[in-house]
């Protein structure tokens, strides 16, 4: 029986030693798990901060680009409005010139035609033709 007790004592001692090893391993796993959780939490926080910073930068770039586009749109719109106004004025002048020239063709008497040339607000037929050329050039430019 003594030998059995000795064997049982060795088994108990070995089992207690293995339990201590297992407990130490469990403690190591718990510390590792805690470290992984803390590291993951820190990395996620840093990632959130990085993306918040990137979103902020992107918003600034977007705002700058939107402002540039709006300024370019305003500049081009103003330029086109100016050209539109010039074309409308040229068309109006051309229509008046066309009406005057058409009326001039209806004159049958040479003296009346000559008088029209001298009395016309545009300075005569030669001036009338020159004005027509200038208006046509403005419309084409």
From TrEMBL:
It comes from the Eukaryota. InterPro entries: Bbox_C (IPR003649), E3_ligase_FN3/SPRY (IPR050617). Residues 70-104 form a coiled coil. Keywords: Coiled coil. Residues 4-128 form the B-box C-terminal domain. This is Fibronectin type III and SPRY domain containing 1 like. It comes from Equus caballus (Horse).
């Amino acid at each position: 029986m003594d030998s059995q007790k000795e064997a049982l004592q060795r088994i108990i001692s070995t089992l207690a030693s293995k339990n201590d090893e297992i407990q130490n391993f469990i403690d190591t796993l718990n510390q590792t798990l805690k470290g992984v959780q803390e590291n993951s939490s820190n990395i996620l926080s840093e990632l959130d901060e990085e993306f918040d910073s990137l979103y902020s930068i992107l918003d600034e770039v977007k705002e700058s680009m939107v402002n540039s586009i709006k300024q370019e749109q305003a500049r081009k719109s103003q330029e086109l409005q100016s050209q539109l106004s010039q074309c409308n004025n040229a068309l109006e002048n051309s229509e008046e010139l066309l009406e005057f020239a058409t009326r001039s063709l209806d004159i049958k008497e040479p003296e009346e035609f000559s008088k029209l040339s001298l009395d016309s607000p545009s300075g005569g037929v030669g001036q009338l033709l020159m004005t027509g050329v200038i208006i046509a050039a403005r419309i084409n430019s």
